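We close this part of the discussion by returning to an individual protein. In the encoding step, the backbone of a single protein was reduced to a row of integers, each denoting a local shape. The sequence in question and its structure tokens are set out directly beneath this paragraph.
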Amino acid sequence: MNKTVLITGATGFLGSHITRELHRNGYKVIILKRSFSDIWRIRDIYSGIKSYDIDKIDLELPFKENKIDCVIHTATKYGRKNEKVSEIIDSNILFPLRLLEIAIFFNTDTFFNTDTILYRYLNYYSLSKKQFVEWLKIFQDKIKIFNLKLEHIYGEMDDFTKFISFVIRELLLNAKEIKLTKGEQKRDFIYVEDVVNVYKSILYHSDKFPKGFYEYEIGLGIATPIKDVVLLLKTLTLNNETYLNFGALPYRENEIMESKANLEKIKKDTGWEPRVPLLEGLKKTVDWYKNNMEEMKSNA
């Protein structure tokens, strides 16, 4: 509990949930952000954590001023906002590589990387994430590295560029129509609370691991058709107006038709397993958006 954890992406969806939970559990939390980052997801705890604006400091400064035990890297660029390829590479490869090198120099014990289950050549984002993993493996004799390959995360405080939150918003606003693919793709949807508990569980057990590279697939372990999830969301939002136009959009190139996490390794090494069933998690998420639509609009 007395460990000092440095978190990147703490103002984002997953990073904010991790930040809030570790802060609540007594860890000393330090975050890296940009001076213009919107802190709305962590505003209520912001005064209780230490932060550095990485666009205004040398990246070594947090390590010089603090004995950092663990780095949790969640910051990323998805390429959904028309970022240049060079920007995606800088965010997803060069920045975390600099951070890893500094962490090793200052004898940080553990480095968490937030990876994706996506196919390497699906898009620029997935390629950059997979390329960084190759770099991580090179440094495995110098630090403990935990690479978490996450399935489709959903939950409170996500932004509307993500599939689940986008559909919920459209349904809550009674949109006339939502254009969708046929929805035959099967995805492993996992509630954000369960994902946060993976990081907590590994962090708790990390002292028993020697230096090395450890990789885990993280999900519910169940593949559910996207169409079924959308229909469920329509029921949960009590929407009787929106037309779900399945088949209006083509599948993207190199579309993955089924994805499901294998949880055997993470269960064996840490005892973690997901606790929130899909229906329960979706209901919690819908309820949160019902009560926070105005704040989400202002922070969209």
The mean pLDDT is 95.
